[in-house]
Amino acid sequence: LDPRQLRRGATITVLIFLPLCLLAAFFGPEIKGAQRWFEFGFFSLQPSEILKPALIVLWAWMLGESMKQPGFPGRAIAVVLYGLTAVLLLQPDIGQTALLGMCLAPMLILSGMALRYVLGGGVLAALSAWAIYSFYPHARERVDTFLNPEGDAAYQVSRALDAIAAGGVFGRGPG
């Protein structure tokens, strides 16, 4: 695709899948405490997985335009889109919201955002992480399990560590 087609495709994708994330939060089946999917018989669809790459392309476009045209509110559009997406994705899995934030932050820095806003966003992110850890038992359990991987709750962490240990320096190949 040429850049124009890519930007159009990303915009259309965001316009379709952002509302689908909202619909999934209300009408999707609950799986492990979260409603993020649509079930279609033989397969399920998680709209946020399609939304994320399109959102990053859209952010890049908006931030690029704000660099070309100083009066264009590209940074504000990117931050508002992040906030809207964060509200829709913030269920028991906070990781997707954090992942998107970690993608947007360097993009904002590279687009020339003022350092005071970058530092303010960093402080806000740190305070949010502390509040989530302090007041959200599911998040606290996940962080504690990651930092101290013992017992049944740490199955995924234990399997990942086993895989890394078994692979050695060069890995063991596919599978």
Could you walk me through the main structural features you see in this protein, from its secondary elements to its overall organization?
It is a single chain. The protein is mainly α and 175 residues long. It contains seven helices and two strands, in the order αββαααααα. It has helices at residues 3-27, 47-68, 74-89, 95-110, 115-135, 137-147, 155-167; strands at residues 38-40, 43-45. It has a two-stranded antiparallel sheet. Helix 1 (3-27) packs across helix 2 and helix 5 crosses helix 6. The two termini are 33 Å apart.
* Radius of gyration over all CA atoms, rounded: 19 Å
- Classify the beta-strand content into a percent band: under 5%
Taking all residues together, what is the mean pLDDT? 87
Span between termini: 33 Å
Q: What is the string of SSEs from the N terminus onward?
A: HEEHHHHHH
Sketch the major β-sheet. Answer: 2 strands, antiparallel
User: Which structural class should the secondary elements be placed in?
Assistant: mainly alpha
By DSSP (H or I, 4+ residues per run), the number of helices equals 7
Strand order within the widest sheet? 1-2
> Approximately how much helix is present in the residues?
over 70%
Which of globular, elongated, flat, extended, rod-shaped describes the shape? globular
What's the β-strand tally? 2
| Uncertain runs | none
What layout of secondary structure does this protein have?
Elements: H1 3-27, E1 38-40, E2 43-45, H2 47-68, H3 74-89, H4 95-110, H5 115-135, H6 137-147, H7 155-167
Antiparallel strand pairs: 1-2
Helix pairs in contact: 1-2, 2-3, 2-4, 3-4, 5-6
